[in-house]
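The authors assume throughout that readers already know how a fold can be written as discrete tokens. A single example would do more here than another paragraph of explanation. An entry of this sort, consisting of the sequence and the corresponding backbone structure tokens, reads as follows:
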Amino acid sequence: SQPKDIGNGYKAPFSTLFEQVGLHKILSLLESEDANVRIHAVKVVANLAAEETNQQRIVEAGGLTSLLMLLRSFEDETVRRVAAGAIANLAMNEANQELIMDQGGISLLSLTAADAEDPQTLRMVAGAIANLCGNDKLQVNLRTEGGIKALLGIVRCGHPDVLSQVARGIANFAKCESRASTQGVKTGRSLLIEDGALPWIVQNANNEAAPIRRHIELALCHLAQHEVNAKDMISGGALWELVRISRDCSREDIRSLARRTLHSSLTFRSEMRRLRIEY
């Protein structure tokens, strides 16, 4: 679900250039003094990174380090947008996700999210963070290095494609967190709730854009599966959304998941009795 359309139609000559000059040469052009050369080189790398077969080679040749350096150097928006897109593509690979974290990528993406204004840049950054949110091992780092806050900051953009990536990140994070709680690895309230994501989640649970709505419905169900989140969810208005999802969601699997989740929580059941909600 991460868009790969990063190169603005430059795809055809890229593989040829790649074959002619080799990966190391292309990566060295990322550090060129000439801005046009840098932009062209980063587009080549981004398009190569869209192909799974190239991802490991790019990382092994030092491409990830170079791309993160481009984000760090506060270059012009085009370079940062395409670099973020390349990182998003590399972040589809689980081994690369940990390398991105080890090289300070979460903090850099978070800083880029705070600075960027262009919706395409924000979509790429949100897509990269969303991919990282799907990795169980990165949960704590995503929180401490500002990843969740960055996603919540990106919603200022309001563009549906950007919000869809934010929603995907939140759903990925909630799913991993739920799994960790079930396995006893994680205790205590959801980090999403701790970082203030619940109001946005509730607000977008019935978003008119189907991709956003689906991600958020799943995120709510994952959060609701753990009793420790129930009180916050009730005070934040999430219970009403779960009831609505259990009745009205067009997808039977999500409706059924919401129903089961409501039934399995003592706190939700007692609140629904108090409010005389039939379930």
